[in-house]
Amino acid sequence: MIALEAKIATLRGLGVVVGVTAKTNGRSSEFSNAELAAIHEFGSPARHIPERSFLRKPLISNAAAIANLAKNAVGKFITGQITAEAALGALGEEAKNISKVAITEGIAPALKPATIKRKKSSKPLIDTGQLLNSITYEVRK
C-alpha cells in the first residue's frame, strides 16, 4: 500500500499542457503563434473571424479515447513499466495529434470565397503551416 501511495504522490504536481507553448510561440508575422491560436480557438468578432476550435472541441469529442489512454498509461506507471512523465507524455502526444488532425481535416465554418482566393487554399487555419507546426505539449511540474 505504501508503494502505491508513493506512486500516486509522484503524480501530484505533474500535469500536461497542450497547445502553443513558449518554445513554439515564435512566428514571422504581426501575431505570435499563441495570439493567432487564441484568435482562431475563440474567434474575434471585432475582426470578423469566427471561432474555429482546434483544441477544445476536438479534445472534448475524443474525451472517451483520451480517458482510456490515460487509464492505460497510469496503469503502466503504477506497475513500473513507464515513468510518470512518460505516462503524461503519451497523453500529450495523443492530444497534440488530435488537434493537428482536426486542423488538417478542416474545421468549420468554411472560408469565405474572398479568403480562399487570397490564400489560394480552402483549408481554414492552414496558410504557412507555422500555427500547425507550433502545436505541441509539455509535461510540467
Overview of the molecule:
The protein is mainly alpha-helical. It has one domain. 54% of the residues lie in helices and 9% in strands. It is built from seven helices and two strands. Strands 1-2 form a two-stranded antiparallel ribbon. Helix 4 (63-78) runs antiparallel to helix 5. The chain is elongated. It starts with a helix and ends with a strand.
Quick structural overview:
The protein is mainly alpha-helical and 141 residues long.
- Helix and strand element order: HEHHHHHHE
Share of β-strand residues = 5-15%
First and last CA, distance: 24 Å
Spatial strand sequence of the major β-sheet? 1-2
Sequence stretches where pLDDT stays below 50 over 5 or more residues: none
- What class, by secondary structure content? mainly alpha
Number of helices: 7
Helix content: 40-55%
Q: Could you say which overall geometry the principal axes of the C-alpha atoms support?
A: elongated
Question: Top keywords for this entry?
Answer:
mainly alpha, 141 residues, 54% helix, two-stranded antiparallel sheet, 7 helices
Lay out the secondary structure.
Blueprint: H1 2-11, E1 15-20, H2 33-42, H3 56-61, H4 63-78, H5 84-105, H6 113-119, H7 130-134, E2 135-140
Antiparallel strand pairs: 1-2
Helix pairs in contact: 4-5
